[in-house]
Design a protein that fits this description.
The complex is a heterodimer of chains A (112) and B (219). Chain A is α+β, with helices and mostly antiparallel strands. Chain A contains four helices and three strands. Chain A has one domain: Winged helix-like DNA-binding domain superfamily/Winged helix DNA-binding domain (Arc Repressor Mutant, subunit A), CATH 1.10.10. Chain B is an all-alpha fold and 219 residues long. The chains are: A alpha+beta (112), B mainly alpha (219).
Chain lengths: 112, 219
């Protein structure tokens, strides 16, 4: 499996997390797990990548966090995307699309 | 089941300034990770070690650094640069007025045989002002400290620029005394314009921090 350079991973993390949260409210571990599963393990976010970013999103009011009690009685801090956070997704997608197109034009790389 | 909250508290003591919620959140992540490994059939000791590795050694350093970086850089203009620049903007005219009154705002050990107490006494006030302005803009503790240091950093950069230009010019004129004076001043400039002012200004920010915690927000 190809490993992804840390810089690329870091840049893509914002889009990946915001997109996931646009679909469901999730807690930190679930976010990390889903990204890992959906990318077949290519993208993997450890605590040092994930939580500082989530806290930044919270400070920027892109996400809202709330403690919730799960059916098993455990408390987890769940994150919801706010309207302001939702607005960030389209420009980020556009940036990544432009990036892949530019890369494709230079290297012949095909964007899946 | 290990007490992950206690483990996180012990390993990430350096992030104690963050809310208890934060400790709990990281603990829940480790708990989920540990349980997932156990469900996969990983022995308890191995699962514990693999889980705790995430907050030990290099990972611990990375985690702390990333949190500090995010804490400092999120809203850096509003919460650090703006308060620091406003403090500088307030300080410069005041010092210009002091200079007009022949009270030179230089930070040297001795000026005409007297300590420049004026300047030193003012530094904690500037530090406190920067920290309070940052607090008003909802800056974190780290950002409040950084805002209190920004005016000093600006002065340092200016002094270093002046010093570098002066040094270069003295090299051109090839005046031995002038060059040696510049070299001698290398021992005065860093402590005089950076370390002592930074410490005094940080003292002011610290006093503001303690006061606001004790008496509620002043702003």
């Amino acid at each position: 499996m190809a490993s992804i350079n840390a810089q690329i991973k870091r840049g893509s993390a914002e889009l990946a997390v915001l997109t996931l949260l646009a679909e469901h409210a999730l807690h930190g571990y679930e976010i990390a797990k889903r990204i890992e599963e959906q990318t077949g393990g290519v993208l993997r976010f450890d605590m040092a990548s994930l939580y500082p970013m989530l806290h930044r999103f919270e400070r920027k009011a892109w996400v809202r966090a709330e403690w919730q009690t799960l059916p098993n009685g455990r408390r987890r801090r769940c994150y919801w995307l706010t309207a302001s956070g939702r607005k960030q997704i389209a420009p980020l997608r556009a940036q990544w699309r432009a990036f892949f197109q530019a890369l494709e034009s230079v290297t012949g790389f095909q964007n899946a | 089941m290990p007490d992950w909250k206690q483990i996180v508290r012990k390993h990430l003591r350096v992030l104690a300034g963050w809310s208890p919620e934060f400790t709990e959140e990281l603990a829940t992540h480790l708990e989920d990770n540990y349980e997932a490994l156990r469900c996969e059939g990983v022995p308890a000791e191995v699962a514990f070690q693999q889980t705790i590795d995430q907050i030990e050694g290099r990972c611990r350093v990375r985690l702390v650094m990333r949190f500090r970086q995010e804490e400092l850089m999120t809203g850096v203009f509003r919460e650090v640069a703006l308060p620091g620049l406003l403090t500088s903007a307030a300080a410069w005219p005041f010092h210009w007025a002091l200079a007009r009154g022949h009270i030179r705002p230089e930070v040297l050990w001795l000026i005409g045989g007297q300590l420049s107490l004026w300047w030193w006494c003012l530094l904690p006030i500037y530090g406190a002002l920067g920290a309070l302005l940052s607090q008003r803009n909802r800056g974190s503790r780290l950002q409040r400290m950084a805002a209190s240091q920004l005016p000093i950093a600006i002065v340092c950069v200016l002094v270093l620029l002046i010093f570098a230009v002066g040094f270069t010019m003295s090299g051109f004129v090839n005046h031995y005394q002038l060059v040696s004076a510049r070299v001698e001043s290398l021992g005065i400039v860093p402590p005089g314009f950076a370390l002592i002012p930074a410490a005094f200004s940080l003292l002011g920010a610290g006093i503001a921090e303690v006061s606001t915690r004790k008496f509620g927000r002043l702003a």
